[in-house]
């Protein structure tokens, strides 16, 4: 019994180790072509070494004496220890996250409405045959949008900004797999909230043919204090990124990528900045201009739009009170009682989705609206309204 349990934990640790590598690879900022090639090698290495581990466990068992005269035994023993250490690391992180969720946080209330897009339209807005097959898998939630209205406490919120309503949407991934009607439904509901400000945090378009969708979808949004956007890693893959930025501007959306602007909202100075690292050159970022974020007097309420939650240390370092991000898709597949496994972040699944209070910064990570892989289980797409309140 004990050898069997040791073997199972070793294999779980093996998978944990390679998942750790996979998640960090997709947060690295390396070129997309190189990442895709390296991704294949990581998967191949995981399977090959996993097969070797399995054969070794069958032939030798999960525990081999360190005094064994056979050098392969020493290699496998070292890997066995690494696997057990990695599994311990993963389980500890899972336990800490479970405990942290029980503590009182900034979320005061969350009113969630589910939009069954297929039921609303009377048909499934799917544009490709393969996507239709994936979408037909029982439990796949790609067409079930959750619309969250979250009321959150914000320390040091200027009194005049109490009740400010910020709509946050991320990771549209306009590919043609889902038709434009899907996005029309999402944004129509977003407009019913009557937001004061709208933030779009990257990965807008994957296919150039979908550029024309932007004026007809995002371009129809309206709010009193502006619509702001940054780009993400999938936007970087486009042959003409400048065209995307210009299309956003022509549609009435302010491109905040690598910029820092001061706006007046309810007679209060509010600083908005965009951080697209690590996929766009650092020279475009406010971080490359020492002191650029600190010249305003008095220090204004500050909001950061970032595609990746990995820029949280940057946000905290520069004193942003609110940071909005996406990129992770919430993991897309969340196992009951366990949560997400795959999450493209150097923090793994820690900031997969939701609210995180990391003073002086409150981080909100969106699960996004879509993705290039049309699979979502226990992790539906979302649009969110954040209503800011004083403590």
SSE order, one letter for each helix or strand: HHHEHHEEHEHEHHEEEEHEEEEEE
Q: Specify the biggest β-sheet.
A: 7 strands, mixed
What is the helical fraction, as a range of percent?
Answer: 25-40%
CATH class wording of the largest domain: Alpha Beta
Overall number of structural domains = 2
CATH homology superfamily of the largest domain: Metallo-dependent phosphatases
Q: What's the mean pLDDT score?
A: 88
Helix/strand-derived category reads: alpha/beta
Question: What is the fold named in CATH at topology level of the largest domain?
Answer: Purple Acid Phosphatase, chain A, domain 2
Shape descriptor reads: globular
Number of helices in the DSSP assignment? 10
Provide the spatial order of strands within the biggest beta sheet. Answer: 1-2-15-3-4-5-6
Taking pLDDT < 50 over at least 5 consecutive residues as the criterion, the unreliable ranges are 282-297
Distance between the termini: 53 Å
Output the radius of gyration.
Answer: 23 Å
Strand percent estimate? 15-25%
- Tally the beta strands: 15
Overall CATH architecture of the largest domain: 4-Layer Sandwich
Textual characterization of the structure:
With 391 residues, the protein is of the alpha/beta class. The protein folds into two domains: 2-101, no CATH class; 106-389, Metallo-dependent phosphatases (Purple Acid Phosphatase, chain A, domain 2, 4-Layer Sandwich), CATH 3.60.21. It has helices at residues 2-25, 32-60, 71-102, 117-121, 129-135, 180-192, 213-216, 233-236, 241-250, 312-317; strands spanning 107-116, 144-153, 165-169, 197-201, 227-230, 254-255, 260-265, 268-275, 301-306, 322-325, 334-335, 339-340, 354-358, 361-365, 382-389. A seven-stranded mixed sheet has the order 1-2-15-3-4-5-6. Strands 7-8-9-10-14-13 form a six-stranded mixed sheet. Helix 1 runs antiparallel to helix 2 (32-60) and helix 1 packs across helix 3 (71-102). The chain starts with a helix and ends with a strand.
């Amino acid at each position: 019994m004990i050898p069997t349990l040791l073997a199972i934990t070793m294999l779980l640790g093996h998978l944990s180790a390679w998942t750790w590598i996979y998640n960090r690879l997709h947060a690295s900022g390396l070129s997309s072509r190189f990442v895709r090639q390296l991704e294949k090698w990581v998967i191949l290495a995981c399977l090959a070494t996993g097969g070797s581990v399995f054969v070794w466990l069958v032939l030798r068992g999960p525990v081999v004496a360190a005094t064994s005269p056979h050098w392969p035994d020493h290699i496998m023993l070292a890997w066995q220890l690494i696997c057990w250490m990695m599994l311990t690391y993963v389980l500890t992180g899972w336990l800490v996250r479970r405990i942290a969720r029980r503590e009182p946080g900034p979320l005061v209330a969350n009113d969630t409405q589910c939009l069954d897009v297929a039921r609303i339209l009377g048909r499934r807005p799917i544009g490709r045959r393969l996507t239709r097959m994936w979408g037909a898998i029982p439990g796949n939630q790609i067409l079930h949008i959750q619309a969250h209205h979250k009321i959150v406490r914000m320390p040091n919120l200027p009194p005049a900004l109490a009740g400010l309503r910020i709509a946050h949407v991320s990771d549209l991934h306009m590919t043609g797999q889902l038709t434009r009607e899907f996005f029309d439904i999402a944004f129509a509901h977003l407009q019913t909230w009557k937001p004061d400000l709208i933030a779009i945090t990257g990965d807008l378009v994957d296919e150039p043919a979908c550029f024309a969708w932007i004026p007809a979808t995002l371009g129809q949004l309206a709010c009193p204090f502006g619509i702001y956007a940054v780009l993400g890693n999938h936007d970087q893959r486009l042959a003409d990124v400048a065209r995307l930025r210009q299309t956003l501007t022509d549609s009435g959306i302010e491109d905040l990528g690598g910029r820092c602007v001061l706006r007046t909202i309810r007679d209060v100075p509010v600083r908005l900045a965009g951080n697209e690292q690590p996929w766009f050159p650092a020279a475009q970022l406010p971080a490359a201009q020492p002191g650029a974020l600190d010249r305003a007097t008095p220090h204004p309420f500050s909001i950061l739009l970032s595609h990746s939650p990995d820029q949280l240390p940057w946000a905290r370092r520069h004193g942003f009170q609110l940071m909005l991000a996406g990129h992770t898709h919430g993991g897309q597949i969340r196992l009951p009682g366990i949560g997400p496994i795959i999450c493209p972040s150097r923090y793994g699944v820690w900031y997969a989705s939701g609210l995180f209070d990391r003073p002086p910064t409150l981080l909100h990570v969106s699960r996004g609206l879509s993705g290039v892989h049309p699979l979502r289980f226990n992790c539906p797409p979302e649009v969110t309204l954040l209503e800011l309140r004083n403590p």
